[in-house]
UniProtKB/TrEMBL annotation, chain A:
Species lineage: Bacteria, Pseudomonadati, Bacteroidota, Sphingobacteriia, Sphingobacteriales
Organism field: Pedobacter roseus
Record field: transmembrane: none
InterPro entries recorded: ACP-like_sf, PP-bd_ACP
Domain Carrier, chain residue ranges per copy: 4-81
The organism's place on the tree of life at top rank: Bacteria
Pfam hit, one: PP-binding
Protein name in UniProt: Acyl carrier protein
SUPFAM superfamilies xrefs: ACP-like
Length: 86, 425
């Protein structure tokens, strides 16, 4: 799965947590979950659970703490997927 | 000067009606909401019948966002939010997405326990070593104040927002707490009410205590029999009732429809002294609660037209009637009408008081007394105490002016509210 595909999947995952339709439509690497998508910080753990399920990966606490924007999240997903493949 | 407090909105989620028109029609016609519950039978409950509000997915989706619905597993929050928001709308109040909260409006919305099914799910996850899978929805649904938190967020309430808990007196107590808040000038509007979860995990403890009937599993609608000679325990129920309380001044200023007035009331405890225990009421405290509520409301016993009793359909019903009689000290042929809604909806535990108050306010505002059902075989201990004419078994249509509503709960606690019809001066 390449970066664009991951971002596309992320978009579907975060969509129910945000009411910022225009920010959602223009989601890219620079999108911040809290500042741009106005996601309630309590819901970040739910997004991580959805990501784990979607990509069949497990995200540790340290990685979780970094997953506040699309860029960091995509990188973490990529590295976990690579670790799974290896 | 103290504010006068009136009721300007009603909402209900009861086993025999989940809208005010449906509920009003059901209580006039003695329609039962008690049904056989296959899950209770599967789980070997002694009592396999119960009262549960019937709500479609579509109805629920009108009150919650898709995100809230995703992991929602708290029937009490569903019932409370539906009744609460309906009451707010019924009062002619808008649900707006303002930036600023409504500082003068709050809510006291009680419950016994919250989200018991959610709690069970979370406990199982933890025991399966999957704590990280709980997500963010466990706390908000299982904290006791979940229901008032959901309601206040939807309405943008900026005054006191709290959940009271006093067993089966919870609903009546919530109204008195909200009343005091407005009376003393600390709030203008308060959404008062209470809710109670459905299902085996909330009802199981009562079943095990053998306080529920096990004799009517084959005839659910006959099972809840307050004041009957064959009363053999209560039928568990669930749901929510909600009332918008408002200062008279505010209600008149916005030309709101006024259902009735809260004249006053009293809350006390028997201290589990004398005949009182954890589960049995101290009669001295019950009588004192009724008498003090009359004094607080500034009325005399003979002015009461109707008593809406606690009357759960256990052997304690006769004791309750005896307590009313001793407290009111009226000649036998002048005892007010007395009725119990539990014949139709069962004992809705923490929600019983608020649902029964909604019924009481409908009686006052529309001028009727709903029939007692399932007491065609009146308990002789009760008919020896009061005239049988005081226990209507068919609908009576007549204007009523003052109604006394009492609820009593485990822990030996009592609450009594006095309502009056409002007449525009």
């Amino acid at each position: 799965m390449n970066k664009e595909q991951i971002i596309e999947a992320l978009k579907t995952i975060v969509q129910p947590y945000s009411e910022e339709t225009s920010a959602l439509a223009h989601i890219d690497e620079n999108t911040d979950f809290i500042n741009d998508l106005k996601i309630n910080s309590a819901n970040l753990v739910d997004i991580i659970l959805d990501i784990e399920e979607k990509f069949n990966i497990e995200i540790d606490n340290d990685s979780m703490a970094k997953m506040l924007n699309v860029k960091a999240t995509t990188e973490i997903i990529e590295s976990k997927l690579a670790a799974n493949a290896g | 000067m103290d504010n006068r407090v009136v009721i300007t909105g009603l909402g209900v989620c009861a086993p025999n009606g989940t809208t005010i028109p449906e509920f009003s029609d059901a209580i006039k016609n003695g329609i039962s909401g008690i049904r056989h519950q296959p899950d209770l039978e599967t789980l070997n409950f002694s009592c396999q019948i119960a009262g549960k509000p019937e709500l479609s997915e579509e109805r629920i989706s009108r009150y919650f966002t898709p995100l809230e619905l995703r992991n929602l597993n708290s029937t009490g929050i569903v019932y409370g939010v539906i009744a609460g928001l309906d009451a707010w709308k019924d009062a002619g109040l808008a649900i707006e997405n303002n930036d600023e909260p409504d500082w003068d409006s709050g809510s006291i919305f009680g419950t016994g326990t919250s989200g018991i099914d959610k709690f069970r799910w979370a406990i199982n996850k933890i025991d399966e070593l999957e704590i990280r899978k709980l997500g963010s929805s466990v706390v908000i649904q299982t904290m006791a104040s979940g229901v008032s938190a959901f309601i206040s967020g939807k309405l943008g309430l900026g005054n006191q927002v709290s959940t009271n808990s006093s067993a089966c007196a919870t609903g009546a107590e919530s109204i008195l707490l909200a009343y005091e808040r407005i009376k003393s000038g600390q709030a203008t509007k308060m959404l008062a009410g209470s809710t109670s979860d459905s299902g085996p995990y909330i009802w199981g403890g009562f079943d095990a205590m053998k306080v529920c009937t096990f004799k009517h599993n084959h005839e659910p609608e006959k099972g809840s029999r307050p004041m009957s000679a064959t009363a053999s325990g209560f039928v568990p129920g669930s749901g929510a009732g909600a009332l918008v309380l408002e200062s008279l001044e505010s209600a008149l200023a916005r030309k709101a429809k006024i259902y009735g007035e809260v004249l006053g009331g009293h809350i006390n405890s028997g201290g589990q002294r004398g005949l009182g225990t954890m589960t049995a009421p101290n009669p001295t405290a019950v009588q004192r609660c009724i008498q003090t509520s009359l004094k607080n409301a500034g009325i005399e016993a003979h002015e009461i037209d109707v008593i809406n009793g606690h009357l759960t359909a256990t052997t304690k019903d006769a004791l309750e009637v005896e307590n009313w009689k001793a407290a009111l000290q009226l000649p036998p042929d002048h005892f007010p009408y007395i009725n119990s809604l539990k014949g139709m909806i069962g004992h809705c535990i923490a929600a019983s008081g608020s649902i029964e108050c909604v019924a009481s306010i409908l009686e006052l505002s529309e001028g009727f007394i709903f029939p007692n059902i399932n007491c065609e075989d009146l308990n002789p201990e009760i008919s020896n105490l009061i005239d049988v004419k005081s226990i209507p078994q068919t609908l009576i249509r007549q204007p009523i002016n003052i109604l006394a509503k009492a609820s009593f709960g485990f822990g030996d606690i009592n609450a009594c509210v006095i309502f009056k019809k409002y007449s525009y001066e």
